[in-house]
């Protein structure tokens, strides 16, 4: 069994929290999440983070209220904010999981947390890979759970993923009696399938996790070898071998995590691209495949009412998260290496919003409608819908779209009074 100090020494090299200050911890009250809570509480100063607790009371066991009460008392004692949600509806593994992550996302957005941390460990990885094998998942998904991935306005981080449960300490925790029930597939895998197979291969868990690691490395190698491809260029795609096309399309579809396609749908998309069948083909969840004479792409066709999004305002010496970015306005010289730095000639609040009809930005001797700018620069529909407009004193001072930033040209007599620092919330 390892100490928290030993765990810290092993994971600090990964710099999981390098881009994060406010970290939300998913805590159930079980041994895994209590380990995570104690670990991050002990090392929050070393990691330079402040933590909060997110707990879902599923109301499925008599102990649920006792667990919630204990966590509330613990949080109050250690002066840590805690957020609690109560599951509603027909209970199932999927329904409970969806409820939890919807709740976590709402708290992150509302309370400006940029990271959600869960206590998944190497045993969970083993079970996940085995479950995906049973269900016939694609090869790329046998890589299992990722240690870091995008989530909500930031990242979902699993710092314990390389440790087995037996290596973690044993803090005070609650035992979840539902873990003994065999009506859940994961429980059957943990209690029956894996122990039985380990009689044939005592190193089965390590073998499955190695399979996941090698699968991840394989697809990373494929990505590295094909990164020079213009993936959605129709002719270039069609010039590749059928096997390369197959995995190129899989790679492209990874950009659309909410587009869950069955194998038949995947095969049909691949056929349409291979044959260059021009047109717009509805997929699911509002997405369309669009094939033209030169390229193909998948876009979500968003209704006009869906474009309405809450506006946010940032003032001087404040930090604000909006979409997948962190915005900081300061009238002091900062030494941090922000990805985008915009000079400000006024200390008035800055409104962050989506694009609106008639929007126009001044480039000094001329101004340009954003609609024409987006067309001329060949931004996709999704990029246009996700564009962030910065407005100050009724004028657009910047536009953030795709990987580009467009700035209003200042007058020659304007004096810089502050700077706007913008960072994308993802691991560098």
In short:
By secondary structure, this protein is α+β, with helices and mostly antiparallel strands. The protein has helices spanning 4-11, 31-42, 44-47, 64-77, 93-111, 122-134, 185-197, 204-226, 234-238, 242-253, 263-275, 370-376, 381-385, and strands at residues 22-26, 50-57, 82-86, 115-117, 148-151, 154-157, 279-282, 287-291, 296-300, 312-314, 319-322, 325-330, 340-344, 350-353, 360-362, 367-369, 388-392, 395-401, 404-407, 418-424. 35% of the residues lie in helices and 22% in strands.
Q: What fraction, in percent, of the residue positions are helical?
A: 25-40%
Shape designation: globular
Number of strands: 20
Poorly predicted residue ranges: 304-308
Number of helices: 13
As laid out across the biggest beta sheet, the strand order is 3-2-1-4-6-5
Main structural class: alpha+beta
Radius of gyration: 25 Å
Mean pLDDT: 90
Feature tags:
alpha+beta; 428 residues; six-stranded mixed β-sheet; 20 strands
Written overview of the protein:
The structure is a single chain. The protein has helices at residues 4-11, 31-42, 44-47, 64-77, 93-111, 122-134, 185-197, 204-226, 234-238, 242-253, 263-275, 370-376, 381-385; strands at residues 22-26, 50-57, 82-86, 115-117, 148-151, 154-157, 279-282, 287-291, 296-300, 312-314, 319-322, 325-330, 340-344, 350-353, 360-362, 367-369, 388-392, 395-401, 404-407, 418-424. With 428 residues, it is α+β, with helices and mostly antiparallel strands. A 6-stranded mixed sheet has the order 3-2-1-4-6-5, sandwiched between helices. A 5-stranded antiparallel sheet has the order 10-14-17-18-19, with no helix packed on it. The chain has a 4-stranded antiparallel sheet with strand order 11-12-20-13, with no helix packed on it. Strand 2, helix 4 and strand 3 (82-86) form a beta-alpha-beta unit. Helix 6 packs across helix 7 and helix 6 (122-134) packs across helix 8 (204-226). The longest helix is centred in the middle third of the chain and has 23 residues, at 204-226. The radius of gyration is 25 Å and the shape is globular. The model is unreliable at 304-308 (pLDDT under 50).
């Amino acid at each position: 069994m390892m100490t928290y100090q030993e765990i810290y020494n092993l994971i600090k090299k990964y710099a999981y929290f390098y881009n994060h200050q406010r970290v939300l911890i998913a805590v159930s009250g079980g041994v895994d999440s209590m380990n995570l809570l104690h670990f991050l509480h002990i090392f929050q100063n070393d990691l330079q983070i402040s933590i909060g607790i997110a707990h879902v009371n599923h109301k499925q066991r008599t102990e649920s209220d006792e667990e919630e009460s204990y966590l509330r008392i613990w949080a109050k004692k250690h002066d840590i904010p805690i957020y609690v949600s109560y599951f509603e509806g027909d209970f199932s593994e999927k329904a409970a999981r969806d409820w939890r992550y919807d709740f976590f996302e709402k708290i992150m957005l509302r309370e400006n947390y940029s990271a959600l941390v869960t206590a998944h460990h190497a045993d969970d990885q083993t079970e996940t890979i085995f479950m995906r094998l049973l269900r016939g998942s694609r090869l790329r998904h046998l890589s299992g759970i990722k240690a870091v991935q995008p989530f909500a306005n930031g990242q979902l981080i699993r710092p314990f993923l390389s440790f087995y449960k037996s290596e973690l300490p044993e803090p005070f925790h609650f035992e979840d009696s539902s873990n003994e029930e065999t009506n859940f597939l994961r429980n059957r895998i943990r209690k029956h399938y894996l122990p039985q197979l380990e009689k044939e291969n005592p190193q089965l868990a390590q073998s499955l996790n190695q399979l996941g690691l090698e699968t991840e490395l394989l697809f990373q190698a494929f990505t590295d070898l094909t990164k020079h491809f213009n993936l959605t260029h129709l002719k270039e795609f069609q010039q590749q071998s059928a096997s390369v096309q197959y995995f190129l399309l899989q790679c492209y579809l990874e950009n659309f995590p909410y587009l869950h396609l069955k194998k038949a749908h995947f095969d049909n998309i691949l056929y349409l691209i291979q044959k260059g069948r021009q047109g717009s083909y509805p997929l699911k969840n509002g997405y369309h495949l669009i094939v033209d004479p030169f390229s193909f792409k998948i876009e979500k066709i968003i209704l006009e009412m869906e474009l309405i999004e809450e506006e946010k305002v940032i003032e001087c010496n404040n930090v604000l998260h909006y979409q997948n970015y962190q915005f900081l306005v300061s009238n002091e010289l900062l030494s941090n290496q922000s990805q985008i730095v915009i000079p400000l000639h006024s200390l008035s609040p800055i409104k962050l919003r989506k694009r609106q009809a008639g929007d126009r930005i001044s480039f000094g001797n001329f101004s340009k409608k954003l609609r024409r700018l987006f067309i001329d620069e060949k931004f996709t529909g999704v990029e246009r819908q996700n564009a962030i407009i910065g407005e100050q004193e009724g004028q657009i001072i910047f536009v953030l779209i795709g990987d580009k930033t467009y700035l209003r040209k200042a007058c020659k007599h304007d004096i810089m009074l502050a700077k706007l620092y913008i960072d994308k919330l993802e691991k560098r």
